[in-house]
Amino acid sequence: MLVVVNGEPRAVVEQTSLEDLLVTLALPRERVAVELNQKVVRRVDWPASTLREGDKIEIVHFVGGGGRAKRDGAMG
Amino acid sequence: MSTVVKAQSDRLVIGDRVFNSRLIIGTGKYRSFEEMKAAHHSSGAEMVTVAVRRVPLDRSSESFLDHLDGSLQILPNTAGCYTADDAIRTARLAREALQTDLIKLEVIGDQTTLFPDNEQTLAAARILVGEGFVVLPYFTDDLIMARKLLDAGCPAVMPLAAPIGSGLGIQNPANLRIMREQLPDATIIVDAGVGTASDAAIAMELGADAVLMNTAIAEAQDPARMATAMKLAIEAGRLAYLAGRMPKRLYASASSPVTGIIE
After folding, report:
1. Whole-model pTM over 0.95
2. Size of the A and B interface in Cβ pairs below 8 Å
3. What ipTM was assigned to the predicted interfaces of this complex?
4. Fewer CB in a 10 Å sphere around the end CB: N or C, chain A?
5. Domains observed in chain A
6. Domains and their CATH numbers in chain B
7. What are phi and psi of A67, to 5 degrees?
């Protein structure tokens, strides 16, 4: 099934959880936050959050900033 | 190096946090991590801002936060947000990732000027304060908006001096002075538009409690040296403010006695 991760469509198997997705993406787990359909999902809830067709996921971290903010990399 | 000894009572208070430094700086636009770290160190700043962005999925990326001194208080911002909704979402994500309630709220109204959308900023501030955030809002230097933000529960307000990254310095000193006089107990942090040390000193002389800047240091030829200049300027400006300056006069007022002059 297709979900959208950081603005890009991605195919995942049925019953994939947010936890599974993060593991598959091999992303650092510290100081990262995840949003599912515009709601923040706490890390402790990642394993129990099963993805469904069309879900929109945003995975964010921190970057240098404080000046003229560029839009690239901003969430959709 | 500064030899000023700070009185215990003259520290910056933001909510229930207390800081020795009245300089808050950003982490953007530096040419290298080394340059950023040197500037941070020279500045004496105790709090730095960071932005929230998507993790790149197509390549491995190092953690930016690993390049920051561990003793710094991190202040996530909502830079890049043009609506209250986006700013609220960003703040919630930042809190989840960093486990901090602090948020620098920026809701921009126009891409060219990066002027804040005060209306959306106020709407977001109200909701975020309601969710327990410690909201530091960036807004135009408008006394009425300042009052509304403080009434909404923001522990400090952050009026801009000039457009972000413009380096123009305090464009409306009268406004800042009025804000200080009309809100004597508010924590006012001048944010955006500072270009060089004298701008920061002027902000403090007008009664600001602190100054937040990024570009002024990051885009200096020698950021670490400019950071030192800013640190000293803010200390000097604060002392001048506390010392109570002399009044301005249109005409001269002799400093030496007018009697006893030889003929």
Report:
1. no
2. 142
3. 0.89
4. C
5. 2-60 (3.10.20.30)
6. 12-243 (3.20.20.70)
7. -110, -140
